[in-house]
Write a structure and sequence with these properties.
With 397 residues, this protein is an alpha/beta fold. The chain contains 13 helices and 15 strands. Helix 4 links the parallel strand 5 and strand 6. The chain binds adenosine-5'-triphosphate and magnesium ion (MG).
Length: 397
């Protein structure tokens, strides 16, 4: 018997027509996640197998737990003998190594030509276990160890150890999106959920030096790095927003500052997305969270773009978002106390129900096309890898 890691795909298996594309993408993503570990990965009839020397298997499992599109990660054994006596002996050998009292054997048989039914295999193997390991008992309802046996075309699999995977779709199978990534709690979580549905992310961050600090920028890079764990690497576009923001501050009535500022962010994001073949924008907006996230505000802000805007958190409560942020390990970074460019210009009474007419009228006070073009021309783009040891990021302008 050979000890291996077996990957089950879950929801993926419903993608009948383009399953080949989904699986080859998953295989590439798995290979990328396991880079540096000596492994061999093979797709075979509804399962993916990862072969590695035993000493690497725990590391393999840890990496696979960060790969979307995997429903279950199984540490199991594979053998090419279909002889029922050998199957029984193998099962006895595996169960002998464990310390427990009750067990159950469950057999699946994708090889329908096999001479015994699933039930017959379970019964024969179960009887053999009882005979050979005297202290064990069968418990069909609540066994301590459920030993599963799969009789397949080319091999028999044995396993009792299953670990839940992240689910979702393999990253890259559902296209590309641009995440508006601030240093806050929400946007990294929104990005994570988009990646989960198979979208490969790039990100854009608006900074306003000297009103925002280098620490705020580092924090966003750190958050991008945390997302890169799931996305392989992330291209982060950094836009200097200072001139636009100062111009807004000088020329726009106080209560509309945020509304207009967000319209500018959307305009720039749409152009970056189109330039980089992203099909959608993603952000961390959540209905009602702040004045700029009422339905009327969202309508006024959204009106400046044609590209679809996905808001994975729009119906989440803040506490639910915080729970997720903790789970994906972005929370502690997000709450570091560095100002981002929204918070320093927050008006006392931001408009809750802005109108499009007023937005358009006020924007006539600014030559925003020129400002946007300059900001885009001066964009800094960096590639952030999950494996970067420190905060050193490579320039790929
Ligand atoms: P977060 O929502 O990420 O916690 P926040 O609360 O500071 O940050 P909001 O004012 O709620 O941000 O803005 C809503 C969304 O707009 C953010 O989730 C993010 O997607 C986007 N956004 C805000 N500020 C920036 C920025 N400086 N750069 C890029 N995107 C931003
Ligand atoms: Mg927010």
């Amino acid at each position: 018997m050979q000890k291996i890691v077996i990957i089950k795909y879950g929801e993926l298996s419903t993608k009948k027509d383009n399953i080949g594309f989904f699986l080859s993408t998953l295989k590439n993503n798995v290979a990328k996640a396991l880079e540096g570990l000596p492994t061999q990965i093979k797709n075979d009839s509804g399962r993916m197998f990862v072969y590695a020397a035993e000493e690497y298997l725990n590391a393999v499992v840890a990496k696979l737990q960060k790969v979307f599109g995997i429903y279950e990660i199984i540490i199991g054994y594979k053998d090419d003998s279909f002889d029922i006596d050998i199957i029984s002996q193998n099962t006895v050998d595996l169960l002998k190594k464990q310390n427990f009292k009750t067990f159950k054997i469950e057999t699946k048989r994708s090889n329908k030509n096999y001479e015994l039914t699933s039930m017959e295999v379970s019964k024969k193997v179960g009887a053999s276990v009882l005979k050979n390991i005297k202290e064990l008992e069968v418990d069909v309802h609540n066994p301590e160890v459920l030993m599963e046996i799969e009789i397949r075309q080319k091999e028999v699999l044995y396993y009792s150890q299953k670990i839940k995977g992240l689910g979702g779709y393999p990253v890259g199978t559902l296209g590309h999106g641009l995440l508006m990534l601030s240093g806050g709690i929400d946007s990294p979580v929104a990005g994570y959920l988009a990646i989960k549905r198979g979208i490969r992310l790039e990100a854009v961050y608006f900074e306003s030096p000297p009103h925002t600090s280098i620490q705020a920028k580092n924090k966003v890079q750190e958050l991008a790095k945390k997302l890169a764990v799931y996305n392989a690497s992330i291209k982060l576009h950094i836009i200097n927003f200072t001139d636009i923001q100062e111009s807004i501050l000088r020329n726009i009535p106080n209560d509309y500052l945020i509304t207009i500022m967000r319209r500018m962010m959307y305009r720039i994001s749409e152009r970056i997305a189109k330039r980089n073949h992203s099909q959608i924008l993603i952000n961390g907006e959540s209905i009602g969270q702040v004045a700029s996230q009422t339905l009327t505000s969202m309508k006024c802000i959204n009106a400046v773009v044609n590209i679809p805007v996905i808001r994975p958190l729009c119906c989440f409560d803040k506490l639910e978002i915080i729970d997720l942020a903790k789970k994906i390990d972005t929370y502690e970074t997000s709450i570091l106390p560095y100002e981002d460019c929204c918070t320093i210009f927050v008006p006392k009474h931001p408009v809750i129900n802005p109108t499009l007419e007023k937005c358009e009228e006020y924007e006539k006070n600014i030559d925003y096309e020129a400002l946007i073009n300059t900001a885009l021309k001066n964009a800094e783009t960096i590639l952030i890898n999950a494996n970067d040891e420190t905060n050193k990021y490579s320039d790929i302008l």
